Amino acid sequence: MQYWEPGTNYPAGAQVEYEGHRYKIIQPHTSQSDWTPVVTPALWGRLDDHDTGESNYHQAQQQHAHHHRHHSQGEKQLHDVLESQAPRPSGQSVDIHHEERQKHWYDLDDNRKKELEIGGGLLAGAALIAGGYAAFKGHEKNEQEKKSQTWALQNWLHDAQVRTTEYYQRGPRSPATWLLVEGPQAGKIPQGAIAVGQEVGRESSWMLYICRAFYEGGIQVGKASEAFKKGAVIGYKHEEIHLSTYEVLVGDMDGLRWVDASGVLNVSQLGYQPVEGGREPDGTPLYIAEASYDGVAHHPGKASEMLDGAYIPHGGTEKNVKSYRVLCYV
């Protein structure tokens, strides 16, 4: 029997030996160094060491599924603790539960809206925007629209803070993770960030990394670099938006791959599950694309099933590129 090894494509029916025990595949995948059989019961079921029969495998599979459920419950408990410890915006005195954060502002009842306006930190969120975070063009919004987008901005920041804290405390839980960069860290690229390309200027060059940020009610995908004044640049409606509060994608390319695409993205034809990068204000998913506009540097950008090609922020605007690649899970 073959020994388990990282970087190996294990198909249905595969069996391996690891640390003196035998395992059978549950979910076909390409192995990674930190996805060993002993710590990934969702991928491998342990076989009885003294019996090659299928019955023992199914029993082991059930036992590992039970273990995985308890493990998932532990992860949820950790998430809840981290969520409760996440820094509150100045002025937030009422508790906001995770389920409530997933709701749109307009779906909340009027009494709850009033509570959140007074004790939910919305005024602090508005101050954040006034202080330079370009969440939206304020002069084009009525008061309810401003409150709605401030609510969405705060929820995105809160979730990003929890996710980033969990990553640094427990390590990666998947091949790709979004990490928050803000405040004094603006412009600092986290270790393990996925590099897309190198842009060359007249006197210097700089690497381009994948980022995303909240803007105009959605989460837009763009590029980050230590060479940028604010750290991140996203594209929206043919404009480049510079931001100092954003997320950078870190990951392990052993569990990811770039897949060729062109024109309007057809997710079902990719052959792999794309990594979701963000969403449009109407909820349309945005996926991570990379493309070259000038034939030299490759830039990160966005693609979706509603856009004709990829859009990359470049030269003060957004460039439409018909042939591009999409980041997918292996």
From TrEMBL:
SMART domains: ChtBD3, DM9. One of its GO terms (cellular component) is extracellular region. It holds the Pfam family CBM_5_12. Residues 46-78 are annotated as: Disordered. Keywords: Hydrolase. Transmembrane segments: none annotated. GO terms for biological process: carbohydrate metabolic process. It comes from the Eukaryota. Residues 1-47 form the Chitin-binding type-3 domain. One of its GO terms (molecular function) is carbohydrate binding. InterPro entries: CBM5/12, CBM_sf_5/12, DM9_repeat. This is Carbohydrate-binding module family 12 protein. It comes from Mycena maculata.
